[in-house]
Amino acid sequence: MSFYYLTPVKGDMPAHLLETIVSTRLDFLKAIYKGDTLVYNEYMVEGSIYDNVGHFMLCIVTILTGNTAFSQFFLKAETELFKRRINTLSAYDLRRFAKRLLNSIKRSDDTPSCEALKVLCQHLVLKNLAHHISISHNTNCSIHSIELNFKQCLMFVASRQVEMKQGMAKLPCGKWLQYLLSLFNTNLRHRISQTDVTPLRSDPRITDMLNKIRKDLIPFMSSNTEVLLSRNVDSSTKFFPPCMLNLHRNLRARHRLSHTQRFFYSLFLKDIGMPVEEAIDFWRNEYKLNPNGTHVCCHSWEKDEKKYLYGIRHMYGLEGGRKTYTSVNCQRIQGSDNACSEGGCPFKFDYQQMVKLLPGCPDNVLSQINEFKRKKQYNAACRTYLQSNLKTDCDSVSFSFTPVKYYMIASKYEMQLK
Question: What b/e readout covers 86-112, taking b as 16+ CB neighbours within 10 angstroms?
């Protein structure tokens, strides 16, 4: 089994052992992240079943939590762990690693840069090359090289570290391990952004495990999300994605939202940092007001206070089955039927309605957005709008995009006030 983690191990494992493996690996990665001295741990033996299970389970945790800070920590710590392991391999171990990886590649045809990884491993299994690479190898060495399509090694092309000829890049052996590291990071990013774990969200075993390790995730949550107070929601809307800005404007105008849209908006506020006490205060202040115009919601705080209190606490995992709810993703918002609702993806609205929710958007950007809208590429349209409002470029814009990610990116980089 390879510690490149192309494929997960199959089989059964007791839930309590799974929790131990995940918790232990998380502590181990924290030590790596901080630069602490590492000690032997039976659950972290490279290439073992425990090692494989721990990696893939933390991938699931990363996806389910949807927390940018934790995702960045996980990517950095796992990449650093891989780097340490690769740099300590002897020539024999490097060849064995490459052989195992080639066998894994045969069983995995959807891995990013799979062909490039295969070419590299075919060279690393050769005895003379493995020995050359593993013995105090100079990063400027160019005695040996491999040829790759230039698109597969753009980072080296951009920094002019490779020779180019007819679309092929000549990658010197001094850069091979660095390239292997970049392939590992790319593969891990792809796994986190593209893996669908929707069925696991309602799995009680996964939910229970998440609740038990939640205390270990608090530092990442707090470092990524400032507390959002009820009184500060209006001023924070400049960082809201258009879909949530639309819900907020409807709520302020009518003082009511339909059940589904209130649920969506509540989860969004929770995940961008609103504590349960502030959520209660926010909805109490709004639902104490008389509704404006005709509306499907006929409830009021005065009449239905107990119902609302229970519902809000339930969303925070404090009542009922104590499930961990997370805010909805773009796909669900875009797929909802909004014929009789205030919600939905604004990039699916007609042009005039859409423009009202894109304050300060330049005409040239609106033109790009409208083209994406015409092609039904709504995520691309939203990313284009966000990117146009950032003061600096941000790689995270295209990474696992959700309304919460939009807010986190926008608030971190600060929107331009036009």
Answer: beebebeebbbbbebbbebbeeeeebe
